[in-house]
Design goal:
Helices cover 22% and strands 47% of the residues. A hairpin with a 2-residue loop joins β6 (127-133) and β7 (136-145). It contains three helices and eleven strands; from the N terminus they run αβββααββββββββ. It has an eight-stranded antiparallel beta barrel with strand order 1-2-3-4-5-8-9-11. It has one domain (37-190).
Length: 191
């Protein structure tokens, strides 16, 4: 009986001690680590939402950022190729033959200390590659634009931005009709 009383007293003492230790934590405030321009550099895994017309497609992609350049080792081309090659079987065959296309996206960065983010202003270049259609290589040029700023967020070390394919030209001729292709990256986490 004496052992149970001692054990109960010990358990009560531990519970009281834990209660007081948790109360002392209430005064601590979260102080974010201020972002630096160099924090943007790194490898990212991103959720990409591609939309054209009423169709949306989601996939996970990887990209790297270094020295004011975002590098996509494998830029998503499916919607671009399907805008050019309307036959689904031929489009899938063309995509298989194209393989990976690298795209480099330049940006300028500026710290917004009040919100603890790095603001990214993108300067897209054209994306050029060749699409094989019925044994003939078609020179494809895609005009990309960034309508809004992107952000590197210090709170969760993520990057968020978007691009649009505004126009596609095949062998110097604009693809018509053409619906804008939007590439939105609502979140990408640094590896």
């Amino acid at each position: 009986m004496k052992k149970q009383t001692v054990l109960k007293g010990f358990v009560v003492a531990v519970i009281v001690f834990l209660g007081f230790s948790l109360i002392s934590c209430n005064d601590e405030r979260y102080e974010p680590i201020p972002v630096k321009l160099s924090d943007v550099n790194g490898n990212y895994r991103a959720r990409l939402i591609t939309s054209q017309g009423g169709k949306n497609n989601e996939k996970i992609i990887d990209f790297a950022t270094k020295d004011s350049i975002v590098t996509f080792k494998d830029f998503p081309l499916r919607e671009i190729v399907k805008s050019v090659v309307t036959d689904p079987v031929k489009a899938d065959t063309a995509l298989a033959h194209i393989g990976k296309v690298e795209y480099k996206l330049n940006f300028k960065s500026k710290i917004n200390a009040e919100q603890n983010v790095v603001e990214l202003t993108f300067e897209p270049k054209v994306l050029a590659f060749q699409i094989p259609v019925d044994g003939v290589m078609k020179n494809t040029v895609v005009k990309l634009a960034a309508k809004q700023k992107g952000f590197f967020v210090g709170y969760d070390w993520s990057m968020r931005f978007g691009l649009e394919a505004e126009k596609i030209t095949i062998d110097g001729v604009d693809v018509t009709p053409f619906q804008t292709i939007k590439y939105d990256i609502p979140i990408s986490l640094k590896n």
